[in-house]
Amino acid sequence: MKINARAKLIKGFQIVLDDGRSHSVVVDLPPDLGTGLGPTSLEICVMSHAGCYVTICASTAKKMRIPLKDLTVRVEAVETDEAGTITEETFNIYIDAEASADRIQRLHDLTVKNCPVDILLKKAGVRIKYNLKTVKE
User: InterPro entries from the entry (predicted)?
Assistant: First the structure.
């Protein structure tokens, strides 16, 4: 499988990214350097990690026959000047599902094991911490 991407400089630091199909997003630098019209490319990377986790988790939950009532992930990434990029991330994962704590933990473990963005960032040396919280009504 091939994944395609194109980046086109529009003005200043405004860049349109597209996947060669029908999806695009504008990235930019914060207002002190750009216009803040869109997230930075590094922010898109963190957002992609959160989105990948939710995608794999939802898919895995379906395979495990765990009906999800709600699934929300919040990620905080740390970028250091010395590394020049992200060095660590903290995931706060909120899962509301009719399942035992053991099954929710298994769902999480399988998600992390199979999330391509997670695998990529770990191979790059990013330290990732997960805070799994189950929501009970």
Answer: KH_dom-like_a/b, OsmC/Ohr_fam, OsmC/Ohrsf
On whether both 32 and 47 belong to a single domain, the answer is no
Number of separate domains in the chain = 2
Amino acid at 97: A
Amino acid at residue number 88: E
| pTM check: above 0.85 | yes
Contacts of 109 (CB under 8 A, 6+ apart): none
Residues 54-93 have pLDDT tens digits of 999 999 999 999 999 999 999 999 999 999 999 999 999 9
Same domain, 27 and 58: no
